[in-house]
Amino acid sequence: MKRLAMAALVSLTVASPKVLAQEATTGSSDEADVRALVSQLEALKASYAQEVRRLRELDMQVQAIQARVSGKTAQMPAGQPPTATAAGPQAPAAPAAATAAAATPPAEGYASSATEAQQAKEAARRSVDDVKQQQSALFNQRLTLENSVTYARYDRKQLTLNGFLALDAIFLGNIAIENVESDSLTYNFAARWGLNPRLTLNLDVPYIARKTIYQKGGAGGSAAAIAQEETHGTGIGDVTVSANYKLFGERGWRPETVLTGAVTAPTGREPYGLDWKVIERDDDDFIRFAVPAKQPTGNGLWQANIGLSAVKSADPAILFGNIGYVRSFKRSFDDIDANPDTVNPGEVVLGDSYYFGAGIAFAFNERTSLSISFSDRMSARASTRYKNGKWMKIIGSDGNAGTLNLGVTYALTSKATFVSMLGIGLTPDAPDFSLAFKVPYML
After folding, report:
1. pTM metric for this prediction
2. Where, if anywhere, are coiled coils annotated (predicted)?
3. Over residues 398-411, mean pLDDT
């Protein structure tokens, strides 16, 4: 027995280093296995997030196609992501990956769940929708109410000569400098009603407050004397009713194209038949300086407008452009003469106008976008005809108003957007500058 005990003790003593070595080898192998499993888990998490995001994109594409085919948009509760039934079978469950994703923050640049993928998609689309709303219309809303305030500054100087040139070198008569400074503040209320995914009706009702300062040199026959008069005018402007029809949705290289038709009613105070204030007469009772007693708030004529606009997303930029034509219809007035001492009834028709514009917007994030654009409006000469007379073109009534526009759009909430726009006049017929602020609210 003693010999057997001694033999067992000796064998244990000899074998213990081998056991320790085996245990150390086993521990190192387990650590390597854990590192490999963690690496595989991270790769599966990234792959799973990509697949979920792809599934959501395919789901929305299929729903959009089904909406175009059926003529109806899918109505979903706010905040609820669309189901994946239309896009095919849902992603297979991955318990291990899902548990790890819930316990570990998602890798940067990836969505860890279907809800986060949907929210990211909607956030990226918000800036695009805000730009589309300003350029044409949004067709996925039932009702949008828009309040805007616009300030415009206009200043124009011109030299007037009243006399004749003697001996081809000496001017005999009066030389005067005329200056007109105008400030206008316009509040516009707009309502936009989406009838279906392709048609939107719009109503714009402006209220205008204007102040105009007239200055004329040569008062009292003296070239150094300047006469000045200030007049005001407030009231409702010309109301516009319009409709937007989506011809094509954005797909591939093709931009979203919208056709716009509008009718403007002469609800504002027309600039014809106004009461005049005589400031100065000469010795022959000739009126040297006269100004309207009140400023007009409309053009006095019915107008029709047809236009085409296009918007194309090119992440992170958004390209847009428009072109259109405005037709004015003749109208009769009791007095179309600018002479305060006479009354001459007749007809007036403004010249046809053509406008176009183009620009680009950059979506910095899901809330903010910056836009820069150029717009131009070219108008032909207006014509007048006294009663039983002939039509005559009014010299100087044509114009070319080119404007450079800089705008910033910021999403206040999920339903409200703040839009600011600075317009810089590039031609004498355009306002020197304009500043506009508007807040569309989607119900």
Report:
1. 0.67
2. 38-68
3. 92
